[in-house]
Amino acid sequence: MSRIGKQPIALPTGVTATVHDGTLTVKGSKGELSEQLHSHVLVDVKDSVLNVTVIDPTNEKDRALWGLTRALAANMVKGVTDGFEKKLEINGVGFKAAVQGKKLVLSLGFSHPVEYEFPDGVTIGVVKNVISISGASKQVVGETAAHIRRYKLPEPYKGKGIPYKGKGIKYIDEQIRRKSGKVVKGAEA
Questions:
Q1: Which helix (H) or strand (E) is 20 found in, with range?
Q2: Options 3.40.190.10, 3.90.930.12, 3.40.50.300, 3.30.43.10; which CATH number does 9-81 get?
Q3: pLDDT band at 120 (very low <50, low <70, confident <90, very high)
Q4: Which of 4, 65, 75, 114 is most buried, by CB atoms within 10 Å?
């Protein structure tokens, strides 16, 4: 039995969940999310409680789908009520970011500014050297943050001090593992 999958999901006030033709749709104050359900997964909504079950709880693949579907449904409920947010920090001399309409413009030491057009359902804000990405879908917010971070990965060799100040874009709570540089040994006589 799936320990995660058996837990019911309480729907807060103002949130509605419906299942129609194998698609779970959750609506709330932050928006509307939908997810296609696997054919072995059953979702039941009664009295503001969402329950997930599977056709055969003894089958290993069905048990995996059970927990996965429950976790996805819980993320959808949390997303339409509170939303999700990721924060990125930019470090580097002359590195900066600005939002221009539907684009994030990054100056990262390249010969040209990097323009990233972010997807619908995501809002991006920039305060000093911190980029905050928020939205209802946990997957879209995470993918957007990962895509922006890939433009200039954090540099693990030259960062000095306990608060990491190396060049690059990193998650605000990320710990960068420092690497030692090359060691040159003197010639033995």
A1: strand 16-20
A2: 3.90.930.12
A3: very high
A4: 65
Scanning the chain, the segments in alpha helix (DSSP H) are 60-81, 138-149
In sequence order, the β-bridge partners of residue 130 are 89, 127
Structure tokens of 167?
């060049």
Phi, psi for residue 176 in degrees, rounded to 5: -90, 125
How far is the C-alpha of 27 from the C-alpha of 15, rounded, in Å?
Answer: 6
- Helix (H, G, I), strand (E, B), or coil: what is residue 5? coil
Question: Which tens digits make up the pLDDT trace of 71-109?
Answer: 999 999 999 999 999 999 998 888 999 999 999 999 998
At 36, list the tokens: 């296609």
Note whether 151 and 106 are within 8 A (CB): yes
Query: 84-171 falls under which CATH superfamily?
Result: Ribosomal protein L6 (3.90.930.12)
Supply the pTM of this predicted model.
Answer: 0.85
Letter for the amino acid at 108?
L
**Among candidate residues 38, 39, 13, 40, the one with its CA nearest the CA of residue 28:** 13
Taking only the tens place, the pLDDT of each residue in 13-22 is: 999 999 999 9
